[in-house]
Amino acid sequence: MSKFTDYTEKCRRISNFFYNTGLEKARRRDLTGACQCLKRSLQFDKYNTDARNLLGLIYYEIGETAEALVQWVISSNLQQDHNRATYYLHEVQGKPGRLEDESVHIRRYNQALMQAQNDNPDLAILQLQRVVDHKPNYIKAHMLLALLYLEKADYAKAGKSLYQVLQIDKNHPKASWYMSVVKKNTGRADIERRRLKNAFSHHQMEDDDIILPPSYKENTGWQMVLHIIAGLAIGAAAIFFLVMPSREAQLHEEHNQELNRVLEQVNQKSMEIDRIEAQAAAAAGERDDAADRLQGMIRENEGILAQYQTLVRILQAYKNEDFPAAVDWYTGLDASLIEDEAMSGVIAGIQADMEERGWQVLADAGKQAEAAGDHTLALTHFQNSLKIRGDNPQVMLDMALVYKAMEDEEKANEIFGQIILNYPDTEQAAQARTERGY
Amino acid sequence: MINFEEELKQFKPSLEVERIEDAIADSDLTDMADIMMNLVKEGSESKKRNE
Fold it and tell me: Do domains A2-94 and A101-191 have the same CATH topology?
């Protein structure tokens, strides 16, 4: 029995060896080789769960979904706990409709194979094209499609399918063979051969050989002109955007400073002009005042002088015994302007004589003018008479009658009122009442 | 050169999803350990018969 145990242990080791080899090939995407190793591994130990799971994964990768499910189901039955196959089964069967789609594509491939084997390649190609459109990792479909294209000598399409197969399974033996046929017929094989030859060809470098970097390019004349123009444009742009703004700002600053200086000077001049104008106005005012004062003094002096002349004429009239002429001149005399004390006695004597006799002369002259119809002259004489002797109701009455004759009722009534009020018991008051209608 | 007819014959249908249960049932899970066990069993039975 121990001999049997030894055999079992040896089988397990051999199985593990094939599993490791298969895993390594799977990592290098040599799926065909990996598949062979894993099958061999399971022949030595059917309980090698990793090998079986990996085999299922490779079947799934090459589009053989049903084969993958078979391996995962067996795996999960042989080892029910801690088995990755359970996860795989859940992923494939768990999503609704996914398994049905897979079934449709697989069935369609089988139909296409049957059509191809029954001399109906065109229909098979149509079916296979639909299959690989929906299931691009289905290697069997790609391979059959490539074979059909090769038979039709459509090497480009065949090459496209084979390229996709070799992307999934790099060492797929039949795909590699088909691809070599495609390359041979498209001339691709010669190109690759030359490229391989160039890649491995060597020649001895000499001292004069120069290695140019790939980025180096020889400039032509036009390129150089274009480069110079571009350089000038960039330089102009740099000056415009970098130098000009600072220079412009500097000029603005200088201009503002100059403007401020000029404005300050203008302000100073304006202030000076205002001051001079004020001085001139003050001087003009003083001048006008002085002129007024001078004019006043002149007028005053002229008035005083005139009063003296009048006084002389009055005295001359007295000397000539022409009293009416003396009264006439006296009416134009302003005795207040004559301040000479030596003359005050003379003036007082004249005033006393005029109050005694002079008023009567003027009253008579007024009556004569009134009688002659000259109301204005009559009023002048009456007013001058009253200036000399105001307390005279008869002259006032005569003057009021002149106003009445001139139809100046208001003025006439005013004077009638004064007579009635100031001299109520006189004959003139009674006449005034009569004139007023009392 | 590819012989189309020969190549075409080598293509086999894929296992369909509906036939998974049959495939599992038909699977030959015999491994080397099973073979060894059978050999040992047969050897012991023939020995008994000879005795």
Answer: yes
Give B10 to chain A, closest Cα distance, Å: 10
Quick check: B4 contacting A, CB < 8 Å? yes
Task: For A101-191, give the CATH class.
Answer: mainly alpha
B31 touches chain A (CB under 8 A): yes
CATH architecture of A342-436: Alpha Horseshoe (1.25)
Helix (H) / strand (E) element for B22: namely helix B20-26
Chain A residues touching B42 at Cβ < 8 A: none
Q: Which residues of A fall within a CB distance of 8 Å from B43?
A: none
* B35 near A CB under 8 A: no
CB contact under 8 A, A106 and B16: yes
The superfamily (CATH) of domain A2-94 is Tetratricopeptide repeat domain (1.25.40.10)
Contact B16 A116 (CB under 8 A): no
Give domain limits for chain A: 2-94, 101-191, 220-305, 342-436
Q: What is the pTM of this model?
A: 0.51
Taking only the tens place, the pLDDT of each residue in A295-353 is 988 887 778 888 888 888 899 998 988 888 999 889 888 888 887 777 888 888 898 99
Residue B11 lies in a domain: no
- The candidate with the shortest Cα–Cα distance to A88, out of A113, A104, A70, A112, is A70
- Give per-residue pLDDT as tens, A4-20: 677 888 889 999 999 99
Domain count, chain B: 1
Two structure tokens written together for A323:
């009293």
